[in-house]
Write a structure and sequence with these properties.
alpha/beta; 2 domains; elongated
């Protein structure tokens, strides 16, 4: 049987790594995982600290986690001491989990970093949950009367995500849903429709130039296996 191919994942706006963790843990029963996180980007130092630790954890066979990791988990040693025990794995984790503020770090630096990690790969996944401060705030009222709202959302929610799509043209991307995104409105129109339109044609949204780049966007019902937790739509 041919060895199962492992697909790279670029995870942006990664937070502590929940979305990427799902990809990293998935396999079709083979020894090798179906996906490998090639790069995770997060701006918040606290979230990045968790992201870095989880990347370090994944450097090891999950059946043979070093005892020093559990010593750290029990508070017996510091993270620095843990990493000193395994410098090679710590270096690999630091290369994968990057503390970068998208929108502030020069776009060409981010573009070069992603290209470097992809290293010519054609089959890969872009994942991420772009910041959604304005969507979250508007969700409570279902709409906003601020005339600048749409521009704010365009910038804070997904502008950098769109730029990465336009620059690197991933064959597949996953954009994480956030509370309020389906109900938020501007000028009587649901913001979700503008978002989906931009995601279908990211070149037009970012560069105001039409190209052959286009995507089909799908909505999925994700059923949480936990009891008493309602279904959430994921698109």
């Amino acid at each position: 049987m041919a060895e199962q191919e492992t697909y790279k994942v670029i995870d942006v706006f990664a937070g502590p790594g929940g979305l990427g963790e799902g990809f990293a843990a998935f396999s079709h029963g083979a020894e090798n995982p179906s996906f490998r996180l090639a790069l995770s980007i997060e701006k918040d130092p606290t979230a990045h600290s968790t992201l870095l630790l989880r990347s370090f954890y994944r450097q090891f066979d999950p059946k043979i986690i070093p005892p020093e990791y559990w010593s750290y988990a029990r508070g017996e040693i510091t993270k620095a001491e843990l990493f000193d025990f395994y410098p090679q794995e710590a270096k690999a984790a630091a290369e994968e989990a990057q503390c970068i503020k998208l929108g502030k770090t020069p776009a060409h630096e981010v573009k070069n970093l992603i290209s470097q990690r992809l290293n010519g790969s054609k089959k890969w996944v872009l994942a991420g949950g772009p910041p959604a401060r304005h969507i979250r705030l508007s969700g409570a009222r279902m709409r906003t009367t601020n005339p600048d709202f749409e521009d704010d959302v365009r910038h804070f929610l997904y502008k950098e995500y769109l730029r990465i799509i336009a620059d690197h043209r991933p064959p597949v991307f996953v954009m994480e849903n956030v509370k309020g995104i389906l109900s938020a409105q501007h000028s009587g129109k649901k913001i979700i429709e503008s978002i989906l339109s931009d995601l279908r044609k990211p070149d037009v949204a970012v560069n105001s130039q039409s190209s052959v780049l286009g995507y089909h966007c799908f909505r999925w019902w994700i059923t949480n296996p936990l009891k008493n937790v309602s279904q959430k739509i994921f698109w």
